[in-house]
From TrEMBL:
Classification of source organism: Eukaryota, Metazoa, Chordata, Craniata, Vertebrata
InterPro entries associated with the record: Rnp2-like_sf
Name of the protein in its database record: Ribonuclease P/MRP subunit p14
A single GO cellular-component term on record: multimeric ribonuclease P complex
SUPFAM superfamilies in alphabetical order: Rnp2-like
Length: 75
């Protein structure tokens, strides 16, 4: 069975945006992650200009996005 939603709204918060690198931190409820990711994947043009989105990291905890634990140096 295939379920398709057309014109569905999903609240998304832009928590941070850096114009130089064109990177943003978005917040969406966990149940909306797949919908948002799918919508970004399908978006090929914005205002008649080609565009693409790349998801660099996801986390259920906002604090986890603040740093990379693999690069942590302990004294």
């Amino acid at each position: 069975r295939l379920c398709v939603q057309v014109g569905a709204a999903l609240p998304v918060d832009v928590l941070a945006y850096e114009e130089k690198s064109l990177c943003a931190v978005l917040r969406v409820i966990s149940g909306g992650l797949v919908k948002l990711w799918s919508a970004l994947t399908l978006q090929g043009f914005y205002q008649n200009r080609r565009c693409a989105f790349r998801v660099l990291q996801t986390s259920p905890f906002l604090l986890a996005l603040a740093g990379n634990s693999r690069e942590l140096v302990l004294d």
